[in-house]
Design brief:
The complex is a heterotrimer of chains A (about 400), B (about 325) and C (about 290). By secondary structure, chain A is an alpha/beta fold. Chain A is built from 14 helices and 15 strands. In chain A, strands 7, 8, 9, 10, 11, 12, 13, 14 and 15 form a 9-stranded mixed β-sheet that branches. Classes of the chains: A alpha/beta (about 400), B mainly alpha (about 325), C mainly alpha (about 290).
Chain lengths: ~400, ~325, ~290
């Protein structure tokens, strides 16, 4: 498999896409768009995020973070003002290619930002690869995006699913746990996080004795909790998110497992649900690329600015959105806002060292963040940082031939 | 009969207008209309069941999705496959699946029928969602679109938006004419007869079950055609295309357009997709577009209450003197 | 797999089944007695959960929240029946599907506008906030057992109401022959309003009492909706007895399915439903 998929059409579509962008500087063929695309005109940024349904708060946080990064630069990136085009992707993969097209073809955006849901991201990736448009993914962790689907125009400012659990292997080893059970939903993200943990844990000599799956998005865990109690592993590692995570944490406590078998997880297990679960999450340790109480100067400034602007506390999603803005700014600054110089822009972005609230990070060859994974512990309503579980963890980017 | 001539003229005029549309060179709207026409085929296939056979299926997305997956799994990853065999094969898979499920679901009636069709669709959903061979919850890509050649000559390139658009338009028209033909035949009249009074038809010696099964299978195969085209359009299939939301949406299109008429579902597909397009447009409605589903919900409720015959019924009312009932089509 | 393990899983399955019954009971009533197919049932479950959360955080007590919430949902049910559902009794199921599909969208968006999109927790009442130890490292929350008790009580109550009371007799008569009951001078409209409100209140009550276990989150209604339909269809539409039997069946099938055949756990209930319907096209129990 090459960088571009073999077969004539792919290249043709790619050329069509770049032609549209190149046409920007030339005299406009389609009057209104041609005009808007001239140098100095507004840069068209497409936000494709969930604004309805379960992931709404994530979509909003990412949008806020991104806009904050733009505002801090006086509302301009690379000297150009920004015009936003927004599409609600409803977290529906069936509509993903169509919604992506809406921004690329209808709104003629220069850059695409999105999304949260991995299935939707897979649909976006298809169109993005065909059109060659610059895409910054501020959340969706599907390993494939910076794996087999990697491309020069595809960037991610969040994480790969693999990354979020890989460092846990070291953590468990350090605590003396020799056996573990992994529990998650039966879907791609869960399986990828399981894989990330398994590799990390087995490298340290640990043994993953059982993988437990419950159908997505079911939240009845009692049967599997009973099985965990029966297996009696040294530790349990879990990935759930949102309402499912809240329910799992509570059930784990109610089943009496909490305090008997220590619970670990991907950071998403305890993000955004601490208000909902009371003391059920207290002491649960997770790894993620962001945490509360980081000793990072940029983080303090970011939190203050975010709280002032939106009257809200930022979360990891806001940080990822913010960094998407920062990464785009780096690229545009390098070409002084002339997005038609795409190769130069991509080169600048690849070389970027992002001064993020999560600490500095760089991009891997496959355009996924190489970042510190923090070990966090739930203390009260916070995911308190305990230290760095893995310094500069890079996703293996399997299958990426870019 | 005068009236049907008017209808025919209107239909032909609409088809010509649609055929000219890609010449306007609006890439996005060409793609959007292509999608709408695919949904129109899907809705017509369901109307055969709901509107003419009297069977309300709430799991029609199963056939739509199955055909998409059939295509994705059939074609070699980086080689071109021919439409000539992939389309019939995908539709054949749906036909077979519809025959098997049909034998089972046709034992039930009413609410039970609605629910059992849903159950079979859900089963299929979980098969593709929970197992690896169809790419799991991430779905799979179809990298290379099928080709359409006659004797080595490429009739149309499906990679070209306008060619694909015309192909879909042609197929939509073909399905329309086919269904009109079928429904005008003895078979079609018998179906409507069964819908009106199953017992009487049985007493008259009609093999009710076999007729219904035939209708169910044909409907499944046509839904498969729509699913195949949808998979070709974006080259991406995901379990979500078989979800009950998809089944619900197509049912909305049929009722909104007006069931029991063939052009109703087509109108319904256009209205449903375009309405959603308008209501969720943030550059027109600003931040309140975020709550577009509220507007959509209210609209759907109003249709259920006040437009039982759908938009087609509304058109008929406007277009004609009220006393002539739609006896011919019923 | 030892004997104790199987016993505990059996308990899990039964307990989950009872929970399902709680949510599905309202649906089967509306289905069976009024002949209305209500896709928005899950939305009322969600409304109940959100009411439990917002009222209990206002008053500080889940019990108070439930006592306040039930009349509210009864009023909501009666209002909706008068305003919308009444117009659909004589029409095809199709329109009921359409209308209630619209209602799902409306409720989901209103929830987003009124209560936001965050996940919330509801505290278990202090009186029931304990667990009973079962094995050395597994215990059973008392609240879950309490809910099971409530479910059983409710099942008995519904059965009594429908089979043994005068109102129940009128309801049953109205379900089988609307016109006849009307000609006997019974206000069938009122009865329908009451049944509908009861069904809605049951769904909402299920959401409320389940809120401490499930947490409160967007789209929680659509998760339970489909499984409730399966319960009702397997059990036989309108049969309280059937709903109970089907709930327990599904609870056990899901529980043991997850443990024994995890690869196909998602499909099990639907396969079960298909089998039952092929064997008995009208469900296990015909309408009582």
């Amino acid at each position: 498999m090459k960088k571009n998929i073999p077969g004539g059409f792919d290249r043709r579509e790619f050329l069509k896409g770049s032609a549209a962008i190149a046409g920007a500087t030339a005299v406009g063929t389609l009057a209104p768009f041609g005009l808007a695309r001239a140098q100095g005109a507004k840069l068209r940024v497409g936000l494709m995020l969930p604004y309805t349904g379960t992931y709404t708060p994530l979509g909003v946080a990412i949008t806020n973070g991104f806009k904050l990064a733009v505002e801090e630069r006086g509302g301009k990136l690379g000297g150009r003002e920004i015009e936003y085009f927004v599409v609600d992707d409803e977290s529906n993969p069936a509509k993903a290619p169509e919604n992506t097209n809406k921004l690329i073809q209808r709104d003629k955006v220069d850059v695409l930002i999105g999304t949260v849901h991995s299935g939707v991201a897979m649909g976006m990736a298809k169109i993005v690869r065909e059109t060659g448009i610059l895409w910054i993914n501020p959340n969706a962790g599907a390993d494939e995006v910076t794996g087999p689907l990697c491309a020069p125009n595809i960037f991610r400012t969040s994480f790969s699913n693999w990354q979020t659990t890989h460092a846990l292997g070291k953590v468990l080893k350090a605590k003396g746990h020799k056996t573990a059970v992994f529990i998650t939903w039966k879907y791609a993200a869960g399986e990828q996080m399981m894989q990330g943990f398994k590799e990390g844990f087995e490298k340290e000599g640990g043994k993953l004795v059982k993988e437990l799956y419950t159908p997505f998005p079911q939240v009845e865990f009692q049967a599997l909790l009973t099985e965990i109690a029966n297996i009696k592993p040294d530790a349990v590692v879990a990935f759930f998110a949102g309402g499912g995570a809240a329910k799992f944490l509570k059930d784990y406590q109610a089943a009496g497992l909490k305090g008997k078998i220590p619970l670990y997880g991907s950071g998403f297990l305890t993000d955004g649900v601490l208000d909902a679960v009371g003391d059920a999450a207290e002491g649960v340790e997770t790894t993620l690329h962001y945490a509360d109480g980081l000793d990072v100067k940029k983080d303090r400034a970011f939190r203050l600015a975010y709280a002032k602007t939106y009257k809200l506390q930022p979360d990891v999603y806001a940080v990822q959105g913010y960094d998407a803005g920062q990464l785009l700014a780096t690229g545009l600054d390098a070409v002084k806002g002339d997005i038609s110089k795409k190769a130069d822009m991509i080169k600048a972005m690849e070389a970027a060292r992002i001064d993020s609230p999560r600490g500095q990070w760089t991009l891997s060859k496959a355009h996924n963040p190489v970042q510190d994974m923090y070990l966090r512990k739930v203390v009260g309503k916070e995911n308190k940082v305990q230290g760095v579980a893995w310094k500069a963890l890079a996703d293996p980017a399997r299958g990426c031939k870019a | 009969m005068n009236r049907s001539r008017v209808t025919n003229i209107l239909l032909i005029a609409a088809a010509i207008l649609l055929a000219l549309f890609p010449l306007a060179e609006s890439t996005f709207y060409t793609q959007l209309l292509t999608k709408v026409m695919i949904m129109a085929i899907f809705a017509m296939s369901l109307d055969l069941l709901v509107g003419y056979t009297g069977l309300v299926s709430f799991g029609h997305a199963a056939y739509f999705g199955l055909a998409g997956y059939a295509l994705a799994l059939m074609v070699p990853k980086y080689e071109v496959a021919s439409l000539w065999w992939t389309l019939p094969a995908a539709m054949g898979a749906c036909l077979l699946f519809a025959l098997v499920t049909g034998m089972l679901v046709l034992r039930t009636r009413g609410i039970f029928f609605i629910m059992v069709t849903l159950a079979f669709a859900q089963m299929l959903f979980f098969i593709f969602h929970d197992t690896k061979f169809g790419g799991g919850s991430d779905g799979i890509y179809i990298y290379v679109k099928p080709e359409l050649k006659v004797g080595g000559f490429e009739v149309a390139s499906l990679e070209r938006l306008d060619h694909f658009y015309w192909l879909v338009l042609l197929l939509m028209a073909a399905v329309f004419l086919l269904l009109r033909r079928v429904l005008g035949s003895t078979f079609g009249r018998a179906l409507v007869g069964i819908k009106m009074n199953e017992h009487r038809m049985r007493a008259l010696g009609f093999p009710v079950f076999r007729y219904q099964l035939a209708s169910f299978a044909l409907s499944g195969a046509l839904a498969g055609m729509a699913g195949y085209l949808a998979a070709v359009q974006y080259g991406f299939v995901n379990p979500e295309i078989l979800s009950w939301h998809q089944s619900g949406a197509v049912l909305m299109m049929v009722i909104l357009g007006g069931m029991g008429t063939l052009y109703g579902p087509v109108i319904g597909a256009f209205a449903f997709v375009l309405l959603q397009e308008v209501m969720s447009n943030q550059s027109w409605f600003g931040a309140s577009a975020r709550h577009w589903q509220l507007a959509m919900g209210i609209f759907v409720i109003l249709v259920a209450l006040y437009l039982p015959q759908g938009l087609a019924g509304l058109l008929q009312k406007v277009g004609r003197k009220p006393e002539i009932a739609e006896a011919a089509d019923e | 797999m030892d004997f104790a393990f199987i016993l505990i899983q059996l308990l899990n399955g039964l307990q989950y089944g009872l929970l399902l019954f709680l949510v599905a009971s309202g649906l089967t009533l509306i289905f069976g007695i009024m002949g209305i197919i209500n896709l928005a049932h899950g939305s009322f479950y969600m409304v109940g959960a959100y009411l439990a959360w917002s009222l209990s955080s206002m008053t500080g007590s889940l019990t108070t929240a439930i006592l306040l919430g039930i009349p509210l949902t009864v009023i909501l049910g009666m209002g909706l029946e008068r305003l919308l559902f009444r117009h659909l009794y004589q029409r095809d199921h199709l329109y009921q599907v359409l209308l209630t599909y619209g209602l799902i969208l409306v409720f989901e968006e209103l929830r987003s506008v009124i209560w936001g999109d965050d996940v919330h927790g509801v505290a278990v009442p202090a009186l029931l906030g304990y667990s009973i130890p079962l094995t050395e490292n597994l215990s059973y929350p008392v609240y879950r057992l309490a809910i099971s008790g409530v479910c059983l009580l409710l099942a008995a109550g519904l059965y009594f109401l429908i089979q043994k009371t005068r109102l129940g007799m009128m309801i049953r008569a109205g379900a089988s022959n609307r016109e006849m009951v009307q000609s006997l001078g019974i206000d069938i409209k009122l009865i329908y309003t009451l049944v509908f409100a009861l069904g809605i209140a049951l769904a909402a009550f299920a959401g409320m009492i389940n809120a401490p276990l499930s947490s409160v989150f967007p789209n929680m209604g659509s998760q339970v909706l489909i499984i409730c339909f399966v319960v009702v269809v397997i059990g036989g539409i309108g049969s309280v007895k059937g709903a109970m039997a089907a709930s327990l069946m599904i609870g056990l099938a899901e529980t043991f399915g997850q443990v024994l055949v995890p690869e196909v756990a998602g499909m099990i209930v639907y396969v079960l439903m298909a089998i039952v319907l092929v064997w008995r096209p009208e469900g296990l129990f015909k309408r009582a």
